[in-house]
Design goal:
Strand content: 15-25%
Order of helices and strands: HHHHHHEEEEEEEEHHEE
Strand order of the largest sheet: 4-1-7-8
Protein name: PEGA domain-containing protein
Keywords: Signal
Helix content: 40-55%
InterPro entries: TPR-like_helical_dom_sf
Number of domains: 3
Length: 352
Amino acid sequence: MPAPNPVCPSTPLARPARQNMTRRLRQIAQLALVLCPLAVAAPAAAQGDIATAEAIFNRGLADMEAGRYETGCKALAESHRLDPRPGTLFTLATCEARWGRIATAVTRYGDYLSLYQRLPPDQQRRQGERPNVAKQQREKLAPLVPELALSLPPGAPAGTVVKRDGVVLGDAVLGVSVPVDPGEHVVSTEPPGGLVRETRIRLAQGEKKKLVLEVDGAGAPGTDDGGSGRRTAMFVAGGVGAAGLILGGVTGALTLGKRSVVEKHCGSAIGSTDETACDPTGLEAAESASTTGLVSTIGFGVGLAGLGTAAVLYLTEPKRDAPTPGAAARRLHVGVLEAGPSRVVLGARGAW
């Protein structure tokens, strides 16, 4: 009787173990068939993104050098999104600075310097003079960055959406001076169920501005420097000045008319050697001329003072932003509001 084989036993108990191992090997082989293509495809996709990023970078760099900063900066930003590299980020910051978007450029230079600090020493050496240039540019541009603080007026409905250049601003940003690029910005407000109101704001380099926005159903907007009250004072002073001049002119004309009556009813005109002697008609005309003459003098004085004050307020008024299209215009009309045989009504009327 042959001895049992210890390496490959032929007992019935060993057969199930062999079958289990065979099944496991088949499962592993099937899983490998699924995972291997995925493992090969991932590097291929990454290589595709890198190639695309390089092509877009070259196009963006060419546009930047040609002065086409808008298309150049957008291409460089897309290249950096596909393949974030320090050199691409530095070039993008340079493009933004040349384009005049200095707030964005300062942020990009800061991002580049932060990324540079995280690089290994050998990769830092490859950057050459870029870190020094980034620091110099950031220090040079930072003081020129404008700042804008936007806030809602009292009584603005809860849930009012505020956007700047199409980007929604959170409640934490409202009332805070934040850096923005120079140039024109479009700010809009939209209360729940209300109308969208837009305001165009232009900022120069280094300018700092605070603005209370206009919201449908809320109070009237205005800058925090009291510009609304200043303009109201200017309109009032101008109205008073214009009314004063008109009053002086009208009463002056009445005075001249009364003096012609005095000449016909006083002195030699009535056969008297006393030039101050007048008949009843002349006396009445003389008294009336004295009164209207005084009123005319006062009216001209008040008119000149009012117009002078309005001129000073107008010439020293801070620059205003362009009005929102469709907003109601302020109007002021000064002059004769009512005229009749026995009286003249002067004043001002308008809409704010």
